[in-house]
């Protein structure tokens, strides 16, 4: 019976391992995809193929990396089999939920940090239970934990953040100083030398991360002095790198001059393969290390014939090879996830947008800390410029002068987030840092390294300008804060789940697994719903036309969408007040925020719209700006109407009187008629019909004035609620502002369309 329980746990851990592989790859794909995707150096399909091959190779070569799950965090000899199984179960349940949570948010986090702190949290909780049950002191817990190794891992991970950012910034600054933004026009030998440096670093990185995990790493050969390959790579790294540099410099020159290949594209392709290989080799332990350790523990215990509560797990202190078949299957699951996971691409967008060259849609809001850091940075920059000789300063500025790129007329084309030099530096520096850490046996997080290198290179490349710096710094702080949150949550949640499992045993495990499945399903449904909302047809589109007539036609769809959503939001506000339905009003607030953000995004795009105009059509800018102004006025009125409606019901104030609701619905019906007519006119491009809509303007404003007058009379004779009176007047006045903005927009379209249509020719 006891054996059956633990067999079921092994099966559950196997299923959890597959799920963890899926959510883990979705998070960590950001590590090796971003440089290639952001630079658009090679096609997306090619990127995926190269990364897939790297993952498959890395997974097969990762056998030697599994020790952290067995003995890296705790002392296995201090625990019995049943306790170890509880620890492993708590770790896997926590890991899946934690990683999926961050994936849903689109925030890259570290699978290494999560697994380390989950193991630490579960082991500490188990140790505390054992110590307290034995009547010992809480200080005795240190005997159960591998404090030296755990401290080394934690300190190494934290140091990697600072080092990766600093080295990334320094190397990118030097690279840009030497190559400038005009790197493709430099002499062929310049690109060849850069290729030699980058490819030799990446090649050594492949040797260190690839061969070290294979069975060949421990073999010795007379050809290399009778020492093992692993020791040879670590002790003879200088001559290896120098030979590599000479070879790859010559090869880069040949490929550039004779084969006419772009050496920067080759670097990005090879670097993507190398980081994918490192990711699989280094991080596979984070996904399947625990289940494999559990399986090997179960195998040893089942052959021992001892009770689970008496079988010591000292066996985990020994080095046990991982079956190659399991590694191969894991690699295939990772590759499949890479191709089909939408969340992987969503997480990747966060880092690309934070390191993007120039302006983009900023996802993070600035805070006092980001503003303070930017001010300090600007102060340092100003001081440096003042003390640096002007001649030297001018030369440096010339190297960082960005080329003027003509805006393309192709609406489907999207500019690269950064150029190929920065992408190559990202891959090269990340590879070097991971290689050095591996050589010196220093633990680190590949996510932290690749992310911070990308942030350092973008800062050095002056991608964070005055227009975007506070948003980018806020984004980096949010991500780093999430990393610390990962550690705290992982430690705490794993400890709590371990405690529940220890006291609830089989029943607790069943309930926790059921809850985990429910939460995963809920996050999946929520993410899909969010994705559909982003892709919704009602989303506003930026104007790309370069003539007035083109802008009129192109912006008609936006206007129809705004009017349609305005109609729905206004009706929901009145209905929510009438029914005192807080859920409707709360949902309405979210709809207004989304609409406002989209209109603001259109206004933020005005600069690029004007740049794209033909010389003969500059007048279109004035029309478009005025249209956006009217749309913004409409959203501001809607925002106020929804806010005061929600506040009134949320504060449990008196319900509006029957006559007030009746009058508001009368206005709503009239507005609905006008909005429906307007929507139809813009959807069908029937701009001539706008005149008939405008003819109803006086009737509508007269109706609003009558309702205001009626409320004045009610207030003097029968109204007893100041809150109701304030709300009703506010609704009427803001409705008047809403219709004023709508009519102004209609007049702009009507007048501009009438003047832009050429007179008919007489045959």
Automatic annotation (TrEMBL):
<feature type="transmembrane region" description="Helical">
    <location>
        <begin position="320"/>
        <end position="340"/>
    </location>
</feature>
<feature type="transmembrane region" description="Helical">
    <location>
        <begin position="507"/>
        <end position="525"/>
    </location>
</feature>
<dbReference type="GO" id="GO:0035435">
    <property type="term" value="P:phosphate ion transmembrane transport"/>
</dbReference>
<feature type="transmembrane region" description="Helical">
    <location>
        <begin position="46"/>
        <end position="64"/>
    </location>
</feature>
<keyword id="KW-0592">Phosphate transport</keyword>
<feature type="transmembrane region" description="Helical">
    <location>
        <begin position="187"/>
        <end position="207"/>
    </location>
</feature>
<protein>
    <recommendedName>
        <fullName>Phosphate transporter</fullName>
    </recommendedName>
</protein>
<keyword id="KW-0813">Transport</keyword>
<dbReference type="InterPro" id="IPR038078">
    <property type="entry name" value="PhoU-like_sf"/>
</dbReference>
<dbReference type="InterPro" id="IPR001204">
    <property type="entry name" value="Phos_transporter"/>
</dbReference>
<keyword id="KW-0812">Transmembrane</keyword>
<feature type="transmembrane region" description="Helical">
    <location>
        <begin position="6"/>
        <end position="25"/>
    </location>
</feature>
<dbReference type="GO" id="GO:0016020">
    <property type="term" value="C:membrane"/>
</dbReference>
<feature type="transmembrane region" description="Helical">
    <location>
        <begin position="266"/>
        <end position="294"/>
    </location>
</feature>
<dbReference type="GO" id="GO:0005315">
    <property type="term" value="F:phosphate transmembrane transporter activity"/>
</dbReference>
<feature type="transmembrane region" description="Helical">
    <location>
        <begin position="237"/>
        <end position="259"/>
    </location>
</feature>
<keyword id="KW-0472">Membrane</keyword>
<feature type="transmembrane region" description="Helical">
    <location>
        <begin position="115"/>
        <end position="133"/>
    </location>
</feature>
<dbReference type="Pfam" id="PF01384">
    <property type="entry name" value="PHO4"/>
</dbReference>
<feature type="transmembrane region" description="Helical">
    <location>
        <begin position="84"/>
        <end position="103"/>
    </location>
</feature>
<feature type="transmembrane region" description="Helical">
    <location>
        <begin position="476"/>
        <end position="501"/>
    </location>
</feature>
<keyword id="KW-1133">Transmembrane helix</keyword>
<feature type="transmembrane region" description="Helical">
    <location>
        <begin position="153"/>
        <end position="175"/>
    </location>
</feature>
<feature type="transmembrane region" description="Helical">
    <location>
        <begin position="420"/>
        <end position="440"/>
    </location>
</feature>
<comment type="similarity">
    <text>Belongs to the inorganic phosphate transporter (PiT) (TC 2.A.20) family.</text>
</comment>
């Amino acid at each position: 019976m006891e054996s059956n329980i633990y067999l079921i746990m092994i099966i559950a851990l196997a299923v959890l391992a597959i799920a963890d592989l899926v959510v883990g790859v979705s998070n960590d794909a950001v590590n090796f995809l971003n440089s290639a995707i952001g630079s658009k150096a090679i096609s997306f399909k090619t990127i995926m193929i190269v990364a897939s091959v790297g993952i498959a190779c890395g997974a097969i070569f990762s056998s030697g990396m599994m020790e952290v799950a067995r003995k890296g965090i705790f002392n296995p000899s201090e625990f019995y089999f049943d306790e170890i199984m509880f620890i492993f179960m708590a770790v896997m349940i926590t890991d899946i939920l934690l990683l999926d949570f961050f994936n849903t948010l689109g925030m890259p986090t570290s699978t290494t940090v999560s697994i380390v702190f989950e193991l630490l949290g579960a082991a500490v909780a188990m140790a505390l239970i054992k110590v307290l049950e034995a009547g010992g002191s809480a200080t005795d817990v240190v005997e159960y934990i591998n404090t030296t190794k755990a401290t080394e891992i934690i300190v190494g991970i934290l140091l990697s953040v600072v080092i990766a950012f600093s080295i990334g910034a320094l190397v990118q600054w030097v690279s840009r100083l030497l190559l400038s933004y005009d790197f493709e026009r430099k002499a062929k030998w310049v690109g060849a030398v850069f290729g030699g440096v980058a490819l030799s670093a990446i090649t050594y990185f492949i040797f260190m991360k690839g061969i070290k995990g294979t069975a060949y790493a421990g073999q010795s050969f007379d050809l290399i002095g009778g020492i093992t390959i692993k020791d040879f790579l670590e002790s003879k790294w200088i001559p290896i790198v120098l030979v590599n540099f000479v070879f790859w410099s010559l090869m880069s020159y040949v490929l550039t001059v004779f084969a006419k290949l772009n050496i920067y594209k080759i670097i990005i392709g090879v670097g993507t393969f190398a980081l994918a290989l490192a990711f699989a080799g280094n991080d596979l332990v984070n996904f399947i290390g625990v289940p494999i350790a559990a399986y090997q523990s179960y195998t040893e215990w089942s052959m021992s014939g001892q009770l689970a509560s008496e079988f010591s797990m000292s066996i985990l202190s020994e080095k046990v090879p991982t079956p190659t078949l399991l590694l191969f299957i894991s690699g295939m699951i990772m590759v499949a996830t890479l191709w089909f996971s939408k969340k992987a691409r969503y997480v990747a967008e966060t880092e690309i947008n934070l390191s993007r060259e120039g302006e983009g849609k900023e996802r993070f809001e600035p805070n006092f800390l980001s503003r303070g850091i930017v001010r300090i940075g600007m102060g340092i920059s100003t001081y440096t410029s003042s003390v640096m000789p002007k001649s030297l300063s001018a030369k440096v500025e010339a190297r960082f002068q960005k080329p003027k790129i003509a805006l393309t007329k192709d609406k489907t084309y999207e500019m690269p987030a950064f150029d190929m030099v920065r992408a190559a530096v990202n891959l090269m520096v990340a590879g070097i840092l991971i290689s050095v850490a591996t050589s010196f046996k220093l633990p680190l997080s590949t996510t932290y390294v690749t992310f911070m290198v990308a942030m350092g290179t973008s800062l050095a490349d002056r991608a964070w300008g005055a227009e975007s710096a506070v948003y980018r710094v806020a984004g980096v702080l949010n991500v780093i804060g999430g990393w610390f949150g990962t550690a705290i949550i992982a430690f705490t949640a794993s400890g709590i789940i371990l405690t529940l499992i220890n006291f609830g045993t089989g029943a607790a495990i069943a309930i926790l697994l059921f809850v985990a499945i429910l939460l995963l399903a809920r996050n999946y449904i929520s993410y899909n719903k969010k994705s559909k909302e982003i892709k919704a047809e009602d989303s506003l589109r930026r104007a790309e036309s370069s003539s007035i007539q083109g802008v009129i036609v192109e912006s008609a769809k936006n206007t129809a969408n705004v009017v349609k959503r305005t109609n729905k939001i206004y009706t929901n506000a009145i209905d929510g007040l009438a029914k005192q339905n807080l859920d409707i009003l709360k949902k309405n607030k979210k709809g207004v925020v989304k609409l406002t953000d989209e209109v603001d995004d259109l206004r933020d795009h005005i600069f690029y719209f004007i740049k794209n105009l033909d010389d003969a059509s500059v007048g279109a800018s004035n029309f478009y700006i005025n249209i956006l102004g009217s749309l913004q006025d409409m959203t501001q009125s809607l925002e106020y109407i929804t806010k005061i409606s929600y506040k009134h019901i949320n504060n449990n104030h008196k319900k509006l009187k029957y006559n007030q609701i009746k009058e508001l619905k009368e206005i709503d019906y009239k507005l609905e008629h006008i909005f429906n007519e307007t929507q139809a006119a813009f959807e069908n491009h029937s701009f001539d019909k706008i005149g008939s809509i405008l003819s109803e303007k006086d009737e509508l404003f007269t109706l609003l004035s009558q309702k205001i007058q009626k409320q004045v009379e009610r207030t003097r004779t029968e109204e007893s609620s100041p809150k109701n009176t304030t709300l009703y007047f506010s609704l009427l006045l803001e409705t008047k502002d809403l219709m004023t903005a709508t009519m102004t927009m209609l007049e702009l379209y009507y007048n501009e369309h009438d003047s832009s249509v050429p007179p008919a020719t007489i045959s």
